[in-house]
């Protein structure tokens, strides 16, 4: 099975990345969620209305992830057609990014956070459009704001986009980014006591170590598959042809 296809293992891995990256999401997005909630006029803070706004925010956010994944995969497809051997390099890059993500999730190495600097210039241009939508009182507004919010610089998202680049198929990459976005929902949506419980579970060393080892195993499987495919291609090129 090709590790870049979108069968259950890659989709499950993408979901786990989002779920276990939730500690990062709580730090980056938890405050935003609270600020957006308190920005709603007190007279309009009925549970049903707030639930609709929260759903709108997150649908917009996940949609922006899927669009970004599709665009990056389209770039990967163009590169594959334009440059010989680039597909193998992109697959190796994706596996390396998975390992870096695992190190981040396990708290073994935090260098992945520095990747976020790559998107700050874009965010400075996009973020003012979000401010114009405040305060949010309607679901379409919430969806629009979430779509902007999804472009906030995030090392975990950039790691997933590196995987999308290797997939090089827009629809599959969008599906994978959607699975990642769904994985982030428990941490982003949790509040109060629930948020503390989710955070404690996500931050528990055993949970994070187990997830990191699973991710590293998946990355190793990708590299092994690539090596075996390369080996078979080399053997095929050495086999004499018969006319």
TrEMBL record:
Transmembrane segments: 12-41, 85-106, 142-161, 173-194, 206-224
Keyword Transmembrane belongs to the record: yes
Key word Transmembrane helix present: yes
Source organism superkingdom: Bacteria
One Pfam family here: DsbD_2
Residue intervals of the Urease accessory protein UreH-like transmembrane domain: 13-219
Keywords from the named record: Membrane, Transmembrane, Transmembrane helix
Protein name: Sulfite exporter TauE/SafE family protein
Organism: Halomonas flagellata
Organism taxonomic ancestry: Bacteria, Pseudomonadati, Pseudomonadota, Gammaproteobacteria, Oceanospirillales
């Amino acid at each position: 099975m090709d590790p870049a296809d979108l069968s259950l293992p890659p989709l499950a891995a993408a979901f786990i990345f989002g779920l276990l990256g939730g500690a990062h999401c709580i730090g980056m997005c938890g405050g935003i969620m609270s600020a957006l909630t308190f920005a709603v006029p007190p007279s309009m803070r009925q549970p049903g209305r707030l639930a609709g706004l929260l759903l709108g925010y997150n649908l917009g956010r996940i949609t922006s992830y899927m669009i970004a994944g599709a665009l990056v995969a389209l770039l990967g497809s163009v590169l594959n057609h334009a440059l010989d051997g680039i597909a193998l390099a992109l697959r190796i890059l994706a596996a390396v990014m998975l390992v870096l993500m695992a190190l981040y999730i396990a708290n073994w190495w935090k260098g992945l956070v520095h990747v976020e600097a790559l998107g700050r210039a874009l965010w400075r241009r996009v973020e003012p459009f979000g401010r114009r939508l405040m305060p949010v009182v309607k679901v379409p507004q919430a969806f629009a704001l979430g779509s902007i919010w999804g472009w906030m610089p995030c090392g975990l998202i950039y790691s997933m986009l590196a995987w999308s680049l290797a997939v090089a198929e827009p629809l599959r990459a969008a599906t994978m980014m959607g699975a990642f976005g769904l994985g982030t929902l428990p941490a982003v949506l949790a509040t109060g006591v629930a948020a503390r419980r989710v955070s404690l579970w996500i931050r528990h060393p055993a949970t994070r170590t187990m997830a990191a080892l699973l991710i590293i195993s998946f990355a190793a499987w990708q590299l092994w598959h690539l090596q075996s495919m390369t080996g078979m291609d080399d053997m095929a090129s050495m086999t004499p042809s018969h006319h």
